[in-house]
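>> received
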Amino acid sequence: MTTTPRVGLLVRLEAKPEHVDELHDFLAGALPLAEAETGTTTWFALRLGPTTFGIFDAFGSDEDRQAHIQGKIAEALFAAAPRLLAEQPEIVPVEVLAAKLP
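>> returned
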């Protein structure tokens, strides 16, 4: 049974031009880590433009969101950020108003 998402994170990432492919591969490769998080209901890695990427993920509770923020994906992203990103990630906590899930 899938937990109904109640809260989420919307993250915008701006890659350094010379590290676009590396950020792309990092995000695509993070899927197994997201799948392993029992509290993560939905996780998307997105490409928004030539050097702009994003992540949207949703959770059933604030506790699940906090666990994700302290999890392996965030740890790896923040470790790689100084090398890969042109600016600090923009992380916006959101409230999920409605969702259609399989």
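>> The radius of gyration is 13 Å.
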